[in-house]
Model the fold of this input.
Amino acid sequence: MAKQGKVYINGRFIGFHNNPEKVTRDLIGARREGKIDPIVNVAFHGDTNEVYINTDAGRVQRPLIVVENGKSLLTEDLVKQVTDKKLTWKDLVAKGIIEYLDAEEEENTLVAVSEPELNKNHTHLEVDGAAIFSIVTGMIPYVTHNMAGKSLHGAKMFKQALGFGASNLAIRTDTESYMLQYPQKHMIKTKVMDLIGMAKRPQVINMVVAILPYRGFNMLDAVVLNKGAVERGMGRALYYRNYESFENRYPGGQKDQFERPTEETVGFMGEEYYKHIGEDGLPELETVLKEKAVVIGKTSPPRFLEEINEFGVVKEKRRESSILSRKGKSGIVDKVVITEDEAGNKLVKVKVRSEMTPELGDKFSSRHGQKGVIGAIVAEEDMPFSEDGVRPDLILNPHSVPSRMTVGHLLEMLGGKAYSVSPETPDGLDGTPFEEVPYEELKDMLKARGFRSDGKETFYDGVTGEKLEGELFVGVVGYQRLFHMVSHKLQARSRGPVQILTRQPTEGKEKEGGLRFGEMEGETLVGHGAAMLLHEKLIDDSDKTVELVCEKCGIIGINDQIRNKKYCPVCNGSRVYPVEMTYSFKLLLDELKALGILPRIVLRDKVQ
Done:
């Protein structure tokens, strides 16, 4: 007799069964016959002799074709009935030909990718090889030729790519949005792209890519771009930023007002700040705005009611509360919308448009995780050129391919080149996983057009005119421009605002903050023995302060400027001396005092 096995439903123990394997088979059989709901999954764990039955929400299931005795239950006759619309997908599920498995039940299966692979051990067959992948991963051509990690990386960057993101962009007021100005259709596409209509919302630029080092400008992951191509519009994008404000109502009947603040307004910034806006406080369309310029002019009532003057009239001094454009984000006014919010207050939205031309430090990536920032934008005449006079749009470092094993990228280059010279394939070549146009066919297409079948070409140096040693692998790849723009990340500070509590520089680009010189950076200076630089970074450039310390008590003294007296609050002695320290250290001493601990500083003569 078989050993008794535990049975769980949704992780809850419900009892024992004398033959756990048989109950698993019976439940799966009942599900295939339609006696149990198709969302129920049953898994037998042989190592622990347990049966897990899952019916709860939140499980991801995927469809597979049932295989019995090494043969698929989905026969050609059934496929014909589906094609003739005599059977539907639901009918196949109800008949037990297709079933949905979750991750747990899938552990007990052996799934074949294609029908010719089937043998007696297989339990299921993939509906389609590409169904293994998610929608995003399924959009990567030749994905089965890449290392898994890089394909995942490429899939992540699909979500960061600029493109034609929304057809109603003109009337949308997202806080931030982007649009690629000249997006192109993919030359190498997958079936998944056709299913989701990717051709209607393109997001790539088809670039002629050559693989070679270029005078050190594309070392590591950097890429070199052709300046001529950039000037012709390659990779150019629009960035939209939305600013909004509303007229708030206050108790007592007062409210905010959209208007151009006058000199009487408390906090008036100066005429040059308001030259972009009209009397109604709003800018005109196509007005050029610099950074930190007023986008929406607004005044608010005073915080406190003023006293009535001798004539019994109150002249309220309104406060300046305009909305300024963000730091480093200048642009042109694209749209002004005047409406109301839920409470009936007047609401204004101003959409500002900036043109983002590719510049040093901007990020590009292919669909295979080969990402890189621009290391140089080289004049077109200085770019290497082929015997036919073709100059690449982008130069990729050869070292970025072998260690990452992105063979799919190389195949896409070859396929893109073959497609470019083959007018008989108007819809693009198929790069769907497991069904892609094979390498040999790409070679034949190139050979038929008079190109070398391996994709290599002889190139000449654009600067010296000399023939380059060896041949360059050159092809066409769909590259994505990502939304990581260097102009949105650039940050520098010499002097600026400090936090009230710690008196250290503020953090964040918007607040004109500094870059944190942290523990690890400090340790590097300690390791170098650069004591004065350490002192400068952690004290002088941060929150240096001079506090009086009592020689006898060792606690912080008081500098009474009204009585012109410096003394110790404990012993009342006047032997207090100035000591340099960071304000955060002085704050620590204060916090320790609040905990009931009295820290003391021992003074010695300063060694010169």
Residues 544-594 form a domain with the DCoH-like fold (CATH 3.90.1800.10). The first strand starts at residue 5 and ends at 9.
